[in-house]
Amino acid sequence: MNLFSEDPYDGKSYKNFINSITRDLGKSRKVCSFFSGCGGLDLGLKWAGFELAFANEIDKNAAATFKHNLGQEVCRTSISELAADLVPDADLFVGGFPCQPFSYSGLRKGLEDTRGTLFFDFARIISEKLPKSILIENVAGFAKHDSGRTLQTVLNVLNDIGYETKYAVLNAEDFGVPQTRRRTFIFGTLKSINVKNFSFPQSFASGCGVKEAIDDLIEATDVSNNEPMQHRARIIERFSKIPPGGTWRDVPEEHRPRLRGDPTKISHKNMRLQSHQRLDPEKPCYTITANIQTHFIHYSQDRNLSPREAARLQSFPDDYFFVGKRSFMSWDTELSQYQQIGNAVPPLLGRAIGREIKVFLDKVK
């Protein structure tokens, strides 16, 4: 099923579209959110017509961002200590737990036999509450993680506690987000409900290019979280040598960082392929991560992206305010604005999945 028109932005610019989305009408469905982060998936589900009933997020700044924008109190108890009776009933439970290698000995030993990984805490709550449906989000490589054993373990656990599942890898770019961002989604229903009748959303249009998405934010002072990084002259000079679509490898040797203690040698510390990538103005952004402040260079400015520019590329509306420090330092214990944005599910992608889930649940008796 495809619930979208051929025009992903309904005849509007990308900026105007994401700043004018309203909640879908129809019967409200309740959702409980775990590992909620700053609320990207939850905003998308809200746009799709879901009502937020519960949120659980341990990080102070992410929880504050969630509450500020979505109006939902956030339980900050660690999910490993969260009692299921504190979680209300809902039609859908969602969560994007950290990707960890783990083992499972089967239901006969119970979910406590899990080496303390967070997925099993989520599964424990699901097994006690038994919502109609569940949605799990993770990185694109989740299906291949630990040679496929991680995914199979998750599916086995969900089967043992009473759920049939389907999974797919979706690219946010296919749903109007100006970013190439692939993520694995697992959707499950109680076995009394036929999950085979559920379909993941189909691609309907590519997201716009970076310039169209964020060009108006250059030096804009009337929007929050838009203070750009302040770089030293040598960094600006280095950035100026990188063409659109290029990386640090395009920087001449005389402008590359030097090894501490020996300025005659080039330092390759933290210089991975994705480091210092100059965005192409006509193409969607590369995958945004929690380290976005060091990964990407603005397509026309010799600087990294501001948090607001990153949030726009994730499809957050401009009035979505991010709490906390702009960037993370080694001594910080709470997530920065950049980290919250980079960890989030793009709301437009959440909206696409949420619409399909809501249509599916509305047909369930």
**Helical content, roughly?**
25-40%
How many separate domains? 2
CATH class of the largest domain: Alpha Beta
The assigned CATH architecture of the largest domain is 3-Layer(aba) Sandwich
Strands in their spatial order, largest beta sheet: 2-1-3-4-6-5
Q: Gap between N and C termini, in Å?
A: 20 Å
Q: Tally the helices: what do you get?
A: 11
**Can you write the helix and strand succession as a string?**
HEHEHEHEHEEHHEEEHEHHH
- Residue fraction in strands: 5-15%
Low-confidence stretches: 107-116
CATH topology of the largest domain: Rossmann fold
Radius of gyration, in angstroms, nearest whole number? 21 Å
User: Which oligomeric state applies?
Assistant: single chain
Number of strand segments: 10
Query: For the record, what is the CATH homologous superfamily label of the largest domain?
Result: Vaccinia Virus protein VP39
Shape: globular
Q: Main β-sheet, in a few words?
A: 6 strands, mixed
Average pLDDT, to the nearest integer?
A: 88
Helix-strand makeup class: alpha/beta
Task: Please describe what this structure looks like.
- This protein folds into two domains: 14-207 and 345-362, Vaccinia Virus protein VP39 (Rossmann fold); 210-334, Alpha-Beta Complex (DNA Methylase, Chain A, domain 2).
- Helices cover 26% and strands 15% of the residues.
- Helix 2 (40-47) links the parallel strand 1 and strand 2 (50-56).
- The strands form three sheets. A six-stranded mixed beta sheet has the order 2-1-3-4-6-5, with helices on both faces. A two-stranded antiparallel sheet has the order 7-8. A two-stranded parallel ribbon has the order 9-10.
- It is built from eleven helices and ten strands.
- The protein has 365 residues and is α/β, with parallel strands linked by helices.
- It has helices at 14-18, 40-47, 60-70, 118-129, 149-160, 210-214, 233-240, 292-295, 307-313, 337-343, 347-362, and strands at residues 29-34, 50-56, 92-95, 133-139, 163-171, 182-190, 258-259, 262-266, 277-278, 296-297.
